From TrEMBL:
SMART domains: Zn_pept. One of its GO terms (molecular function) is zinc ion binding. This is Peptidase M14. PANTHER family: PROTEASE FAMILY M14 CARBOXYPEPTIDASE A,B, SLL0236 PROTEIN. It comes from Fictibacillus phosphorivorans. Its cofactor is Zn(2+). Residues 1-27 form the signal peptide. The keyword Signal applies. Residues 43-397 form the Peptidase M14 domain. InterPro entries: Peptidase_M14. GO terms for cellular component: extracellular space.
Length: 397
């Protein structure tokens, strides 16, 4: 397993100049906070800062990290793709498809900075994999610090006039409460707008749909992710691993204990097409590789557990038996990618700067579990059945 040294200052993560022999310091504090506390989100990277940071990384890497604009949000903000490495195995990571789930963006930037360095470990990784990162998929939602994008149903119909008679999709938000305002700025849960048919064209008969059916690619954000994925498949034959970085509620516990979950992981987003339960997806059976997804998740779990006594100790499986073909994870799993879900504890409002730094470290460590395992080939030797031994997540009653 590769090792990287990191320096953490003022709650932000900054890679050291030496980029060698990393250590992850343990701490006695929990990465969560009491449920009712609310903290500022100013310490997280906004879209303008992301633009600047990516350019800085690209420049300092002397061309090893390539940054390009691959799409635009509904409010015309750039959606960036960063690529590093020349290996034949593609690891694709995305963050902030939900705009109030931000720790993954910081973790991705740290990893890009390291992989663009002259470290021998970074060079080895670059030779074996091509890492493709979308660090802020939903910049409109990120600026609004909310889950959904900034797009109304009339805009959808203008782009897809065949939907004039359709009802708005089930994932369309129009409510207002003390935290989120979707009344004046409606929006869609972009992570329910994917379809395993990567060439799907929206049709009125598929609306409004429901959580257990595929999405429609009606948002520019999901279209961008799909197009990046399709282009990678065209170039490399497949995307070896797809990792989606999220946050979850702050009150989940490890099943059978009172321990609050630091973050949960998962390999399961649709029923296995090779089983009776997955009969609706039999056309994807030849591509779907649940065992490999389980191996990737065990690699993440093992990397986290190696930390020992730390604020990252309570790692669990996200609730299983999901049927979510409208998610990026569900759609891309059916198209042959090994898939990993990260669900970090809390939302941006539910922890302070120290806790944020700890959770970013947790995400980064877990990502290296995949990156290192694919690079050195160790992930392919993992017994996938070990996935079933990872503790389950249980909601607090």
């Amino acid at each position: 397993m590769f090792k990287r040294k990191m320096v953490y200052t003022l709650g932000a993560l900054v890679l050291s100049a030496t980029l060698t022999a990393p250590t992850f310091a343990s701490a006695n504090t929990s990465p969560g906070t009491p449920d009712q506390q609310t903290f500022s989100v100013e310490g997280f990277i906004n879209h303008a800062e992301l633009s600047s940071k990516l350019q800085q990384i690209a420049t300092s890497s002397q061309g090893k990290v390539k940054v390009e604009t691959v799409g635009h949000s509904n409010r015309n903000r750039e959606i960036y793709k960063a690529t590093v490495g020349t290996g034949k195995k593609v690891v694709m990571i995305q963050s902030e498809i939900h705009g109030n789930e931000k720790t993954g963006t910081n973790a991705i930037l740290n990893i890009l900075q390291f992989l663009g360095s002259n470290s021998p470990d970074a060079k080895k990784i670059r030779s074996e994999i091509t890492l493709v990162a979308l660090p802020m998929v939903n910049p409109d939602a990120s600026e609004l610090d909310r889950r959904g994008n900034d797009m109304n149903w009339n805009e959808v119909v203008r782009k897809f006039p065949q939907l004039t008679t359709a009802k708005p999709s089930w994932n369309y938000y129009t409510y207002k409460n003390e935290t989120y305002d979707y009344t004046s700025k409606p929006g869609f849960d972009v992570n329910r707008d994917f379809n395993p048919d990567l060439n799907y064209v929206p049709k009125a008969s598929d609306f409004p749909g429901k959580s257990s059916t595929a999405g429609w690619y009606i948002t520019p954000e999901s279209q961008t992710v799909r197009d990046v994925y399709k282009n990678l498949v065209k170039e490399f034959g497949k995307v070896e691993a797809f990792i989606d970085l999220h946050h979850q509620a702050p009150y989940y516990e490890v099943d059978g204990t009172d321990n609050l979950v630091t973050f949960s992981i998962s390999a399961q987003f649709v029923p296995n097409p090779k089983t009776t339960e997955g009969a609706a997806y039999t056309q994807y059976a030849d591509k779907y590789d649940y065992d490999y997804s389980r191996q990737l998740n065990v690699a993440v779990y093992n990397a986290m557990q190696q930390q020992g006594n730390s604020p990252f100790g309570n790692i669990s499986l996200y609730p299983q038996n999901q049927n979510l073909p409208g998610t990026a994870l569900g759609s891309f799993a059916l198209n042959g990618s090994g898939t990993v879900l990260f669900e970090v504890r809390g939302q941006t409002q539910s922890f302070g700067q120290k806790k944020k730094g700890q959770l970013v470290k947790a995400v980064e460590r877990g990502l290296y579990g995949v990156i290192d395992g694919v690079t050195d080939g160790s992930v392919y030797t993992i017994d996938p059945e070990k996935y079933e031994s990872i503790p389950l997540t249980e909601g607090r009653q």
